[in-house]
Design goal:
By secondary structure, the chain is of the alpha/beta class. Helix content is 45%, strand content 17%. It has an eight-stranded parallel β-sheet, sandwiched between helices. Helix 2 runs parallel beside helix 15, helix 3 runs parallel beside helix 15 and helix 5 packs across helix 6. May play a key role in the regulation of the intracellular concentration of adenosylhomocysteine.
């Protein structure tokens, strides 16, 4: 069998990868039903899809659905640390996906792989953090010819796309998959909350009960993280720049303050803002000995790593797996997890498959919708059709054997009329 184009760590890991992918599929009934529908209808026949995603078992099941729909798929990683090498091997050897990704790749390889998948001349893009779209616009704009549009899965990526669109630089219609109700509620809130705690515990074996956890950012991800940290017995402090989100945190019973004040009180710090330099030099100077620093925002910019390196007089790499210790001149030590990258994927396995089931079902259905409707869409950020989000929610409820009420004819008339 001729294998698709690939650059992975070890194809010999494919069998282990298949077991991992199959295990994830058990918790992904909605995406499985979408794949079965795609196999019958072949809605992506003859189209090439270039994806920049975390190379995990859950992603593999998304790509299997696209392949079942007839697409040729090329994949690059959206984070240097998150690739599961056995999954990457299985995607190439068993599922016919062109993969250019391996765990621990250097920045130059990461950038090169993005260009490689774009050189497949894709018709559709699936992005996670806007790196693929950004590379296409700034590095290889010649490869945009023939691209019908794309989908973006993350809060950070949608923010970047909206900025590009506002400046008139976005040349494609890009669907904000991240902004659907199912994605924000389940993926961002429940998925990020659980998987971030998982990553911190795997990397440190720390006890959270009785300790102070500082959550920087109270969007959907921050809310989920704060809920789960409090559920484990932690005292939770929230920092925010948005008055509405800060008020929401106050009304939910959290302590809300500035990072300057929180820095002296916190035992564990987690950034989930989508911005940069949230923890800076002045904050590091106030932290306790033994403070733990973690990030669950998409990029490794939320903790000022240059300031951390500059302040340290000694750096002990790998004091635990996925943990580096920085020693300051006064003897205080802080622990940085996963190099300041996504701790839930660097030190753990990312979101549970049951969470990604809905997110990737929305992604798969939206990809087909985009292929069918791209000619009618102008460049810019596009919302996912409401019926797609509703369909996925109904499929998930059916998989959970949950029944809900339906509107009566009289109720439908009432809701659609302004006359009493």
């Amino acid at each position: 069998m001729t294998l698709p184009s690939h650059e992975v760590a070890d194809l010999g890991l494919a069998r282990a990868g298949v077991r991992r992918v199959d295990w994830a599929e058990r918790s992904m009934p909605v995406l499985r039903s979408v794949r079965e529908r795609f196999a019958a209808e072949r809605p992506l026949e003859g189209l090439r899809v270039a994806a920049c995603q975390h190379v995990t078992a859950e992603t593999a099941n998304l790509l299997r659905a696209l392949r079942a729909g007839g697409a040729e798929v090329w994949l690059a990683a959206s984070n240097p640390l998150s690739t599961q090498d056995d999954t990457a091997a299985a995607l190439v050897a068993e599922y016919g996906v062109s993969v250019h990704a391996w765990a621990g790749m250097d920045p130059a390889s990461y950038d090169r792989n993005l260009v490689t998948v774009l050189e497949s001349r894709p018709h559709l893009l699936i992005d996670d953090g806007c790196d693929l779209v950004n590379t296409a616009h700034l590095v290889r704009p010649d490869l945009l010819d023939g691209v019908l549009g794309g989908c973006e899965q993350t809060t950070t990526g949608v923010i970047r796309l909206r900025r590009m669109s506002a400046e008139g630089e976005l040349r494609l219609p890009m669907v904000a998959v991240n902004d659907t109700a199912t994605k924000r509620m389940f993926d961002n809130r429940y998925g990020t909350g659980q998987s971030t705690i998982d990553g911190i515990l795997r990397a440190t074996n720390a006890m959270l009960a009785g300790r102070t956890v500082v959550v920087a950012g109270f969007g959907y991800c921050g809310r989920g993280l704060a809920e789960r940290a409090r559920g484990m017995g932690a005292r939770v402090v929230v920092t925010e720049v948005d008055p509405v989100k800060a008020l929401d945190a106050v009304m939910q019973g959290y302590t809300v303050t500035t990072m300057e004040e929180a820095a002296a009180a916190g035992d564990v710090f987690v950034t989930v803002t989508g911005n940069r330099d949230v923890i800076r030099a002045e904050h590091l100077g106030r932290m306790k000995d033994g403070a733990i620093l973690a990030n669950s925002g998409h990029f490794d910019l939320e903790i000022d790593l240059a300031a951390l390196e500059d302040r340290a007089v000694e750096v002990n790499r790998g004091v635990r797996e996925h943990a580096d210790e920085y020693v300051f001149a006064d003897g205080r030590r802080v622990l940085l997890l996963s190099e300041g990258r996504l701790v839930n994927l660097g030190a753990a396995e990312g979101h549970p498959a049951a969470v990604m089931d809905m997110s990737f079902a929305v992604q798969a259905l939206t990809t087909v919708w985009l292929a069918r409707n791209s000619a009618d869409l102008a460049p810019g950020v596009v919302e996912v059709p409401a019926e797609t989000d509703t369909e996925v929610a109904r499929l998930e409820l059916a998989a959970l054997d949950v029944r809900i009420d339906a509107l009566t004819p009289g109720q439908e008339v009432y809701l659609s009329s302004w006359r009493l």
